[in-house]
# Entry
Amino acid sequence: MARRPGTSSARPKIFQFLATFLATWFLALAALAAIPAVDQWAVRATVASLTAVAHLLRLEYIAAGSYVTLAGATLDIVSDCTPLMPTLALWCAIFAFPAPWLWKVLGMIGGALLLWIYNLARVIAIAFVLQHRPTWFEFVHAYLWQTVTLCIVLLLFIGWIRARMPMRAPP
Amino acid sequence: MIWLARFLAWATLLSIPCFLLMKPYQSALAQVAMGFLSALRLPVALELRLQEPFNLGIYAAMCLASVRSSMRERMRALVVGVPALALFGLFTVVAVIGGYRVVTGSHGADADNATTRWILSAIETIPWVSAPALWLALLGRRELPGPFLRWAAG
# Structure
C-alpha cells in the first residue's frame, strides 16, 4: 500500500493536538460547572429559539418554563438538549489546531451558529418521534442523535480545516 | 466525506446491538466498579446511566469506516482499541467516583455543588471524547484530511 507523505512523522503532533484538546475540554467543563448561569442561559435560549421556529413553521407549540409542547409531544429542555457540549467540543478542537486567530474565531462563531440550528432541528425531530413513534424515542434520543451530533461536529471541524487551505498563515 | 458516510452507516448498524446490550453492560460495569471501590475501602452504591457501550460502537464504526488504513491496521485497531476503551471506561468510573469520595468524604457533597457538576459532566462526556481520541491516536495518521496531516507532519 502506498504511504501518504509525511504520515510516519505525524504522530507526535497528533498527540500534541489530542493533549491540547483534552486539557481544554476538561478546563471548559470545569468553567461550565463553576458558572451554572451559562447552562441556564443555554436552556432559556433554546426554548426561546424553539418558540421562534415553531411560530415560523406554524407548529402547534406551548412553552412553560423549560417544558415545551411541540407538535403534541411534551419535552423538558435540559442542559443536554442544548448545543452547549457539541459547541464546546468544536471550540476545543479549533483551539487545539494551529491557525490564525481570526480564522479560529470565525470558525468558532460559524460553528456555534450551525450547531445551534442543527440542535433546533434535532429537538423538533425528537418531538415528532416521541409523538408518532414513542417506542423509538429512547433509541433515537440516547444514541442515534448523539452519533449524528458527533458526525456533525467532525464534519464542521474537517470543513473548517479544509476551508482554511486558501488562506495563508501569518509569517 | 466518504469516511463520514461510512461512519454514519456503521454507527447506525452497530447501534442496535449496543442498544440491546446497554442495560446489562452498564449493570456489569457498575458491579465491577463497586467491587474495585470496595477493595479500595470506598464502598459506594452505583447506578450508571452512561453512554456505555455506545462509545464502543462509535469507536468500532470509526475503525470500520476508515478507508486509507489497511484491513490489518483496522482490525488491529479494533482488537486493541475496543478492550482498551472498555477498560478505560471502567477506570474512569472508578477514578472519578473514588476521587470524588476521597475529596468530599463518605457522605458525598451537595448535588448542586460545582465539583459534582464537573464530575457528572466529565463522566458523561468522557465516553464520547475517548472514542474519537483513540481512533485519532491509532489510525489518525492515515485517515486524517490532507491539511491536518500536512500540519502534523510539520
About this structure: Chain B has five helices and no strands. The longest helix of chain B spans residues 2-39. Chain B touches chain A at residues 4, 7-8, 11-12, 15, 18-19, 22, 51, 54, 58, 61, 68, 70, 114-115, 117-118, 121-122, 125, 128-129, 132-133, 136-137, 140-142, 144-145, 147-154 (CB under 8 Å).
